[in-house]
Amino acid sequence: FIGYIPNNRPPIGLDDYLKLYLMITENKTFKIISKQPTYDYLVPHVYLTPKGVNLLKIIQDIPINPFLTGKFSDVIIRPEIKLMVDLLYKHRLIDFPLGLYQQFEAVVDGFCQDLKVRSKTRDFMSLKNHWDSSFGNSRKAYNRFEEAVLYSNPMFQVHSLLVSAEFMNVDDFSMDQKTFSPVTVEDMLRATSSKIIEAVWANNAENHTLGILSKQETTIRGFKSIRLIFFVAREDTDFTPFAESQLYTDVEPFVFREGKTSIGWSDITCMNSGVEPLVYGIESNFYDTNQNYIGMRLTTLKYSLIGPEYWVRFKYTNTTFKVEKSSY
Prior knowledge:
Elements: H1 14-25, E1 33-36, E2 45-48, H2 50-61, E3 75-77, H3 79-90, H4 101-118, H5 122-152, E4 155-166, E5 173-175, E6 182-184, H6 185-202, H7 204-207, E7 209-218, E8 223-233, H8 246-251, E9 256-258, E10 261-265, E11 286-288, H9 294-306, H10 308-311, E12 312-314, E13 322-326
Antiparallel strand pairs: 1-2, 3-12, 4-8, 4-10, 4-11, 5-6, 7-8, 7-13, 9-10
Helix pairs in contact: 1-2, 3-4
């Protein structure tokens, strides 16, 4: 194909997969190849249309995308993306020889028709609606929590604790030494997290904690975690080392690393997007409704916490985001 360089393609995000899905299902045509005549009428120049370029980018990304190759053994992906990828495999487009462009075009057409039909089945629409409804509930819960925090606390800081265990599968378990009943890694993480939540909340008058959020996380290396997020009120900007704070004192007895389990303070990815760390002496996890770019920073914080579950979740289809404690 003229103008297509397969080894010089930009990174592919899951949003690119969803855009391709919508491009196919919401349009009556999906033309991927354009032909132009040459001096030899039997040998046309073959060009990929923008839709064709998008399709090939996705096809070449699928075999190396960790969310689609099973490297996250306990994670499921958004229904539209999973359906589209499954059908690309079914129609054998993942390794179809591109030199046979006429056959390729015909197979793509069959794939598109198949995708349109299967995307309108009752089972699929029910799964998609449940996925979207669950995410919508998380967004509403966070919005109510944030609104309550901002109503009477124009300044606050956000701290994050990661309770982690390394297991190959979320269903892996050990035995309770007293009852000899199975205890899954999720049970262990939740029990440990609950102890920390109760200890912090019992002393919230002193540590000024406004609320506690939680969400489950995983890594490609097999670590399963529950992230606890503490919103702490501030009355001034006289920042002191975090180790001198009451919240740190309350949580520190739980912090440890032993074998496959650990509890430790952890940053929230992209929490300070839009403001350079410590610029003008501002702490990166400090929020003030009178700050420049505060709207953008609050939005970034929000979707750093709830956004990943729009795309991927654990084996069950409900989101894991939860408002554990709130002062309001």
